[in-house]
Amino acid sequence: MPVSPADLDGADRLSAFRDRFVIDDDLVAYLDGNSLGRLPKATQERLAAFVREEWGGRLIRGWSESWVDLPVAVGDELGAALLGAASGQTVIADSTSVNLYKLLHAAAGVRPGRDEIVIDVTNFPTDRYLVESVASARGMTVRWLEPDLVENVTPDVLATALGERTAVVVLSHVDYRSGTLLDLPGLTDAVHAAGGVVVWDLCHSAGVVPIALDAAAVDFAVGCTYKYVNAGPGAPAFAYVAARHLADARQPIAGWWSAADLFAMSDTYETSPTIRRMLSGTPSVSGILAVQEGVRLIAEAGVDAIRAKSEALTAYAIELLDAAGLEIVTPREPGLRGSHVTVRHAEAREVAAGMIERGVVPDFREPDLIRLGLSPLSTSYAEVAAGVAVLVDCAAR
Amino acid sequence: MPVSPADLDGADRLSAFRDRFVIDDDLVAYLDGNSLGRLPKATQERLAAFVREEWGGRLIRGWSESWVDLPVAVGDELGAALLGAASGQTVIADSTSVNLYKLLHAAAGVRPGRDEIVIDVTNFPTDRYLVESVASARGMTVRWLEPDLVENVTPDVLATALGERTAVVVLSHVDYRSGTLLDLPGLTDAVHAAGGVVVWDLCHSAGVVPIALDAAAVDFAVGCTYKYVNAGPGAPAFAYVAARHLADARQPIAGWWSAADLFAMSDTYETSPTIRRMLSGTPSVSGILAVQEGVRLIAEAGVDAIRAKSEALTAYAIELLDAAGLEIVTPREPGLRGSHVTVRHAEAREVAAGMIERGVVPDFREPDLIRLGLSPLSTSYAEVAAGVAVLVDCAAR
């Protein structure tokens, strides 16, 4: 007899974390935590207290008392808990796009004399668009990888593009459509063997897949915090620069927050010797505090425990989808996938709309994909069961 | 007999607006609204409701239901109420630094064949640093204006730098140190007569000085919202591109939010034909909502009424400072100043620290300046009187 979702939830060591989030009872299932994570109750309280006491009460004094250090302090917290990054290499600020733009320039700059940026055609649009923009501005060439969507960037696919011209390789740790999890250490080694540097986009893995940037000798990384970090719509992103590159990593959005002395208002620009050089303008204080709360929830649960539940949740979803005969795009080997499961259906747009009408929120991706994002801290097995049941029903119409 | 501050407050038609802000009774006077504006009560409620109902309740559906249009919708509101800008020319997103970076590239791009960017040495650091960065990246030359701090950039000073090589001129509407208000229409005309385009930094004027960008045929403008717009620490900034430049205005941070179809996830990048092309990554939703509340307060009061009180408040401060024999840097002609009054004192740092100890918050600026920022919607005459009295006392020690 198959195990019931209630039994699975009963045996789930992380099940209590679901109560730490605001859960809307009007929804049958929220399966889009990989687009926008749920609201942690602690964040709701923290933001209200920040507005009331810090902005309203401390006013400008808040900057010198604590806010000015937040981009690096919370960057360090996120780096330690989520990225395997020692302190002084991670900042929280701006959007993923803006940070990626900065990192691309910085990465190209540490490999002068090389003129190719490598990226795959399956990568997220903002990554592809920004690579084209930066390559064009720097007189570089974009070398396109054309992997299969599901197998995605394997060592063999990457090898076809690497060579003496390789300056920078841009890869997404988890593919935003198929959910395929790339071999971060292995691909990083391959880029290094060719003499290039790598920029990892961790948007779909940060907080849900164990990551060890320092151990893998990753050069640069970027990611958002509104997915599995649960920091809210448009929350600031993170940027990581390996300590060994800091002295040479120059980014062009040289605003006052990137200067060696923020308040000196110097006549001449001197870039900060620390990771603060990746900042530009005044960052959102409330945004960074929401990131901090999200990071603390993850640190409390532990990324390894989160990953274990993620593998089990996705396996459970795949089992239910298989039983209904739906086409699954996501790799079946747990070690090869992140935390979303993607279904291909000829009428995906209509199926997704039908699901939403019935209180199940998935994510539609052009032209024929439905993503089910399973966020281990807030998604229950019962939710997966209920959500997939509605998907199966809508898909059968 | 001199008029008492209580009488002045009694006659103030905007006095009721002070009750619309959270006022910390522990402070004798908050005179730094030009660094960080006070917290509007409506914003406190709006942010709590947003977190609870929109993020917590609508989750990802919020994007399609309303959030995706916010950068332009609130940009239009701000443009109409504060900038004299018709719709479709203003967006809210990113920081001032990031937006200025984008506008500098866009501005340089609409004047191909010209290779000089003009900026004054008195301009705010981030403006100077970014001009240097963009000029370097584009192979352009920075032409430095060296005005007197107080007279600042007059038509005569500007004329020395304009010519056939002038591509872009970057000016701050109100000087962040002296408080000098520049002649925006006249200087804009002069730049145009030379064949260049102008980028106005409105950080210290937006919301407190009447601005008519369309009427003055301004090309590009940028500004923050955490000063007189009262949108909170690190709130997103605005960027304005005149409609006639939109088709040619290209910026390099070509993230997905700048694409013609945000959710098409196209293989090739096509920039949005609208002002959305100035966006990059996912903007902070709560940040934009705080901007909207701040803008609505200003629209309700009216910028002209705010300006009238600003002139009266600064005149009152100058009168009190004069009576104490302190050195005032800010122009005495009301039409030549913004909404802060700056005092020069050999021991400015110690004086400012002493004031803060006694519950009066000014702003210290290297090496010898103390700024008193008077924000008409939340600053009372009584507050000015009490604050200046403490300044005078501390300065006399």
From TrEMBL, chains A, B:
Give the cofactors, semicolon-separated.
pyridoxal 5'-phosphate
Gene3D superfamilies assigned to the protein according to its UniProt record, in alphabetical order: Aspartate Aminotransferase, domain 1, Type I PLP-dependent aspartate aminotransferase-like (Major domain)
N6-(pyridoxal phosphate)lysine PTM positions read K227
- Gene Ontology molecular-function annotations: kynureninase activity; pyridoxal phosphate binding
GO annotations under biological process?
A: anthranilate metabolic process; L-kynurenine catabolic process; L-tryptophan catabolic process to kynurenine; NAD+ biosynthetic process; quinolinate biosynthetic process
Q: Which UniProt keywords apply?
A: Hydrolase, Pyridine nucleotide biosynthesis, Pyridoxal phosphate
GO CC terms in record:
cytoplasm
Q: In which pathway does it act?
A: Cofactor biosynthesis; NAD(+) biosynthesis; quinolinate from L-kynurenine: step 2/3; Amino-acid degradation; L-kynurenine degradation; L-alanine and anthranilate from L-kynurenine: step 1/1
- List the catalysed reactions: 3-hydroxy-L-kynurenine + H2O = 3-hydroxyanthranilate + L-alanine + H(+); L-kynurenine + H2O = anthranilate + L-alanine + H(+)
InterPro entries registered for this protein in UniProt: Kynureninase, PyrdxlP-dep_Trfase, PyrdxlP-dep_Trfase_major, PyrdxlP-dep_Trfase_small
Q: Which domain of life is it from?
A: Bacteria
Under Enzyme Commission nomenclature, its number is 3.7.1.3
Which residues participate in pyridoxal 5'-phosphate binding? T96, S97, F124, P125, T126, D127, D201, H204, Y226, W256, T282
Describe the task this protein carries out.
Catalyzes the cleavage of L-kynurenine (L-Kyn) and L-3-hydroxykynurenine (L-3OHKyn) into anthranilic acid (AA) and 3-hydroxyanthranilic acid (3-OHAA), respectively.
Description of how the protein assembles with itself and partners: Homodimer.
Which PANTHER family does the record cross-reference, listed alphabetically? KYNURENINASE
What is the similarity comment for this entry? Answer: Belongs to the kynureninase family.
Name-wise, this protein is Kynureninase
